[in-house]
Amino acid sequence: MIRTAARPNDLPASYGFGVTAIAILLLVLALGTTAFYVQSIALIPEVQLGLNGEISLVLAVLNNVGIILPLLVIGLSLFLIVTAIQMLRGNADAVRWAGTIVFWITVGAIILAIFLFFQQSAANDLTGLPADYGRGLSAALVPLLLALPTGAASWWMSQNSMLINRNQSLTSRNARMAWNLLIPTIAILIIVAARPLEKTFITSLTDKRFGSSDPVSFVGLQNYTQLLSFRIDTVECRRADDGTCALDGDGNVRWELIARDLLQAGYRPFANIPIGGDRSLALSGTDSEFLTGIGNTLYFTVISVTLELVLGLFIAMVVNSNFKGRGLMRAVMLVPWAIPTVISARLWELMFRDNQSGIINKILLDLGAIPQSQSWLTNSSLQLNAIVMVDVWKTTPFMALLLLAGLQLIPADLYEAASVDGAARWRQFTSITLPLLRPVIGIALIFRTLDALRVFDVFNVLLGRQRLSMATYNYEVLIQEQQAGYASSVSVIIFVLISVFTFLYIRSVRIEAQ
Predict the structure, then answer these.
(1) Chain center to CA of 204
(2) What does each C-alpha distance from 143 to 109, 125, 139, 253, 278 come to in angstroms?
(3) Where are the alpha helices (DSSP H) in 271-358?
(4) CB under 8 Å to 51, separation ≥6 — which residues?
(5) What percent of the chain has pLDDT over 90?
């Protein structure tokens, strides 16, 4: 005999009446909330100016409302309408979801009422308003009135839970439990992460000035076009008196500029790629400094993270083995990571001095690795390598710590069985260690790549404006040039690059499949 899911019309009349009442409540909430939200937006003074054509309506709406909140209101309203319709049709699973909905609406309304009460009751020094609990109570009245019917519906659902939840599948119950656990987390993420990111994106669509009260204009994607526009041209090298390619002070070939009309259009060369002989591909962009910063950051990220992974894995395998003093070794290896980046950068700045007082040059000269002292922080061809050395020294212990945690989770029995089967050390490493360590390697790469792509302090301390990363360029644009809109577009691009790298790591290492 096949048992079908319970339907409201199969239960007592009082139960069916309650379900119908809650379905109507959800419909009223969906339509009423949408209408109230649209009306409240239209009453905003800045939006009214936009409706009258005095300012940009798009900018007015984005500044005051944003993107996420309207989408949430529309999405939740549609979800409430669909759920209510399914309830009226007798869908038992929709009734169970309605219980979850009214519960969280009640909780959210109470939290909003408490927030509005304290916010509106407090004194405002800017406007001169004194503290007034009556004003706060008036502001909290609307969400409290909303909490009354939803709270009553939630109580009724809890009283009839035995009838509502009978014959439900385990999958349905687990799905609702998962959403009950996720809703608070999602709400917090929207407040502390999604909303600031949204505000940054909205600002990037304007010409806003940092710390200025000047009128703000909506410029659309103009900032992004300025940042990312680039072209590739072929140029020849500059000739010396003897007809050979001229060299600069660092020994690099000097190349001709791109065409005059391109220079007048705002393009500036930022890199040259030799293609053989006396010709090269000239990369130019309308914001050459930012494109150079992208190249600097990607070079720094790829080289430093790769070296840290290799060295970190070697160190982790060493300290994971049994030897006397292993505990002390594990503690000592974390010292570089514990030193603040600014302090370690200043220490390395002294070590990088281009005379005998610089210990790096002293050691390399004694070893015969270099013919003469090098200007690590002023020679353009050595600057990035010097920065990589500092970062690898400081952050390799962190990588080793993460990998060590992964190594300790691998059962020793696997290595013993492999030894009995005659597998060599390298075979055990490639067949046991690396496959089982893949999820940990993926997590470690994500952490380090996120940190490297937004590198700021080591570049700012050691190189200043000599060579910029994306983050230091963002700082220069925001603080020094006070272009808040333009700097916000840089921040959004950094976020997109970080997201792309994270997605590629997750897909390539297959973390989700472990």
Answers:
(1) 16
(2) 5, 26, 8, 70, 73
(3) 288-320, 326-332, 335-338, 341-351
(4) 42, 57
(5) 12
